[in-house]
Amino acid sequence: MLCVRFRGTMDAWDPLFLDSLAARGFEVLTFDYSGLGQSTGERTYSPASLARDAIDLVVGLKLGKVVMGGWSVGGMAAQIVLAKAPQLVSHAVLIATTPPGPLVKPGEPLFYTLARRENDFEDFVTLFFEPADPASRAAAERSARRLAERTDDVSPAVPFEWAGQQLGDGPQNPVFPADAVLHALKSTSVPVLHLGADHDIVFPVENWYALNGQLPTLHLVTLPRTGHGPQLEYPEASASHIAAFVGSDEQAAP
Fold it and tell me: Which pLDDT does position 65 carry in this prediction?
């Protein structure tokens, strides 16, 4: 199950990333949060509410234990699911997100500018890739083409005016002040993977490395010359990393 990013809908997931997960044996479930995209209900970006959506979906569909994944704010939601309903989670896959608690490196103010306006291709590159790198820019062009391929039954975009109002004025520290979640990460037996980027302007990966000695089940994979969407630039490699993480017998939670 994949919880999507800020301002994202089901259609923000790169089709090649989803197909690559499916090709490696996963049944992949994406969804729109309450009140966003094609979902009804009250819209909010409270991570606790987003986590409740995910929990309700797992329980309602009688899925049992799932690999709980989340990108950006969806990664915060996934961590809350792990803390509140660990019986539903076999593995946690966190993509370009922030850990709870104080940070050693805050995000960049540029994100808050981009988050409050309608985004063009250059914004897409700046947010999710490494704009100074030609190979990363080429990967952005390929990902954008794949994302544009679906034209039927596309989820409505999240209104950027409303979304921008949900943010503060600039980088916060902590972004995610959840002591219970940090405690859960420090005591869980559930394997946790963070798949990050070397230049994430929103949630710097350095904050996960700072916790590396404190989180007993944490695995860290950092992909080069990319930004807040490592699975957009490296869809097949990201799926391979996730499959190897989930498929290792040594990592299986009791």
Answer: 97
